[in-house]
Amino acid sequence: MIYTEKVMDHFANPRNVGTLPDADGVGQVGNPVCGDMMTFYIKVKEGKLDDIKFQTFGCGAAIAVSSMVSEMAKGRALDEAMAITNEKVAEELGGLPKNKMHCSNLGADALHLAIKNYRDRAAGGTEKVAVGGEHDHEAEEEGEAVEGREKTGACPYCEGPLEGLEKLCECRHCHTDLAECPSCGLYTKAGEPACTHCGTKLPPEAAS
Amino acid sequence: MKRVYLDHIAATPLAPGVLEAMLPYFREQYGNPQSFHRHGQAAAAAVALAREKVARLVWASPEEILFTSSGTESNNLALKGLALAHRTKGNHLVLSAVEHPSVLNAAKSLEKSGFTTTLVPVDRDALLDPAEVGKAIRKETVLVSVMLANSEVGTVEPVSDIAKVAKSKGVLVHTDAVAAVGNMPVDVRALGVDALSLAGDQFYGPKGSAALFVRKGVRLLPQVDGGIQEGGRRGGTENVPAVVGMGEAAELAAAAMPERGPLMAALRDRLIDGLLRSVDHVLLSGSRERRLPHQASFFVRFVEGEAMLLSLDLKGFAASSGSACTSKALKASHVHLAMGFDHATAQGSLVFSLLDTTSTEDIEALVAAFPPVVDRLRKMSPLYTEFLQEKKP
Description:
The structure holds two protein chains of two kinds.
Chain A: H1 5-12, E1 25-30, E2 37-45, E3 48-57, H2 60-73, H3 78-82, H4 86-92, H5 101-122, E4 130-132, H6 137-141, E5 144-146, E6 168-170, E7 177-180, E8 187-189
Parallel strand pairs in A: 1-4
Antiparallel strand pairs in A: 1-2, 2-3, 5-6, 6-7, 7-8
Chain B: E1 4-5, H1 18-22, H2 38-57, E2 65-68, H3 71-85, E3 92-96, H4 101-111, E4 116-120, H5 130-136, E5 141-145, H6 159-168, E6 172-176, H7 188-191, E7 195-199, E8 210-214, H8 240-278, E9 282-284, E10 295-300, H9 305-314, E11 317-318, H10 334-338, H11 343-346, E12 349-353, H12 360-380, H13 382-391
Parallel strand pairs in B: 1-11, 3-4, 3-5, 5-6, 6-7
Antiparallel strand pairs in B: 2-8, 7-8, 9-10, 10-12
Helix pairs in contact in B: 2-8, 3-4, 5-6, 8-12, 9-12
């Protein structure tokens, strides 16, 4: 199997699936182009996450990640829930395949957006849902080349090294700098301590 | 739990007798077909016999069959070998937009040495219009390459009509028939093609066995330079056991096809009708009428393909999907996008492909197991919730 037993358990028996019609905060990330969509609903009581429900359109990893995030956050104080990181979620699941790591990013993001939405509402905001985390793989693929810059790192898809890369692209959609993997030809985000798609740690010299 | 394998397009088991036919060529008959001694000559005779059997399966002459290691290699050899051999005539290629990556990427590689490519669009059933192919042909076109059948959506293309159009303009035609050969009747003369790729592992032969038909008199530049094997068109010692295995599988497939074809098609239709009837918002992908006899593929709305595959696997059914999440690069299938489907629909791709051993009971069991799988995932899907809310007055 490509997934750990823990992932398969959360996929087959996901915790906290559903919606909360009278939610105090709603966070939504992703779009069908990137493969996954997640919506988190939260109820807050005395500064704690009293109830959490989620809905996910996506692969096994996306469903398992949402379920794990909901379990890790339920009953926690808001600041504690905000401290849940993508790495912690993946770790709790016993690891995820490299090219599925971006799913774990979405899970934590959706929860954090729901909390942000709750806080915005408390401050007088009227938005019913906080939406974020969208990016467009196709636009990244079509990014235009920028000459003469060098980046390092590892490709999230084939794990090939990106060292010595001179070709750098900018996503037309979100203007992110992307480096092309010489092994598989795909792009990964450059200039970050860890790849935003997959969570792979990039050497510090890559950060700029 | 009984396991039901419905992923023929990924791999088939060996037909009965194929392994037994191969075994002697690993141990007793280990000679090199190029050697002059008896060991060599026995192996050479086995390769020659296999060549006849493979030729018979597609109505070709034995000397028109070249053995290769995979459908991918056959497609590479056809594209590069034909284009480069006819370079003085021109530098333009015409392909369909739904070709296998081994055809599309071979063309991309040729673009680096000065070729240009036109991709002919398909309709919503992934069908090509021969007239559109004709329009794409220019004075400097050297090759048209269109697949005979698409394994992802099951559509069988009008290759003989396309070949007529191309021939009338004096252009060579290759067809990637990997998904078709051994599963439906394929006749290279009736198709009117100059080259055709096939692979043994699509008709119950071993992996690593494949061939390229090249019509007599058509020039082809070798892409593996070496000795005089395969008439000097593909160097390297012959993979004798694999070649023998494919020969055996070809003979069995040719004999079984008249009876097996209609049976498979009836089972396929039972599966298609069963799933369309038992679950709402499911579409058949590809053409209903012009379809591979062993392939049934769908778009299931509001759910994602990999999640369906995992759920079906837990219930004992092996299938495949062309969804972005099941691809290593997390990209939607170029075939689905070329057919005009959006990313959300393409994410719901689900592909079943039947074996000759698939039974009516297997299909009935799948049709019964499928609705709860979709229900469960839809209950989790924000897209489905959104859809239900929009439907409410």
